[in-house]
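Subject: complex prediction, re-run

Hi both,

The earlier run crashed halfway through, so I resubmitted it with identical inputs.
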Amino acid sequence: KESKLCDTFEEPLDTFLEDKSMLENTVEERTTWEYHVMYNQSYSVPTLHFNAWRSDGALLSLEEVWGRALKCYRGSLEDDKWTVLTQQEHPILRRPFYTLHPCRTAEFLESLKEKSSNILITWLSTFGPVVGLLLDFQYGRSVASANH
Amino acid sequence: MANDREVLREIWEGRLPVCFQLNSEETYSLQAPDAYYLMVPRLSYFPLVTDKVRKHFLKYINPEKQEAEMWLDFNGQPLRWHYPIGVLFDMYASDIQLPWNITVHFDKFPEDELLHCPSREVVESHFMSCIKEADVLKHRSQVVSNMQKKDHNQLWLGLQNDKFDQFWAVNRKLMEASGEEVFKYIPFRCYRGDGPFVQHLVRPVTEEGQKKTLHHLISEVFPNETDLHVMTHGIEPPWETPLQWLSEHLSYPDNFLHLCIQTS
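This time it finished cleanly. Structure:
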């Protein structure tokens, strides 16, 4: 009996264990996101600025940010990514922030005029998720059709 | 319409002498590298004109950092590459004696101060977004959106390759007031000390239809302040210069007036 036990323990641990997931290292990666909504005077629209940092303090790269945004927007964003989402200087804080470009926003807001009682919330709930910002459902409750 | 071609040409050909030196802490080799001297165009952006600077210094730094992003500082201040070179110079002009001494870095990129610039596409994207914003201010964005992609490319290539005629063949359309006599608003940015730049909505004419001048603009943006000096392209334009003319002739290729404000 003793020798049998010894045999078993000479085997490498990963073949011994049936459930190999116990061997995996799980490191939790936390990303911290900061969002600012600013009014862009030139375009007369709101713009969304944000940053995202890994737990070691490093800023997410543009490629990484696009990677996450693309999950929401297959196809169309890929071609236009350079004109939609890039780093820009924050107009007040002067620090680099990832920014959703305002050019499309004006068109989008125009199309919402008759349909939403709070176009700011409709805008934010549409574009926010692209960059990881999910609004609480309570915000949605406050938006009613303007034609009620 | 930007008629004064001589002025446009002079502005285009502005150059600055720069002495680039490697940050001494990053010198890996036994021998310190020679400084690299270069005449740089005022109207361009540092990432477009410093390929040779990078090549020159790369061999003197840690061999494991050959892919690192280069960044520049003057007097300990990281230089915002997304501002045109001439704007950066005018901002620091009082502290500069020619040649302009700039320090080159490959390490410890200041992410909380500088935008990343890993490729020319980043510069192009920034440049084109300034052009679009200027167009929104001048023409309600009707000119740029009606241009073909090849016209956008021509603006960018004209700037990159220092081709005045190529650039202005397209830019003259952006400098036309399209139907009206004047632009809706004047695209401009004012830089003062360390704070964020100032940008307001300013019309080139009064409500009575009279031409406004540089003096009007500064009074609107900095009310109740006297003794201010406005510098752009290394000169102080006369206070009576009409805003419409200023915008058509003294804008940078991004179609913005970049004005550095100093107090006496």
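Residues 89 and 95 of chain A are 6 Å apart (CA to CA).

- K.
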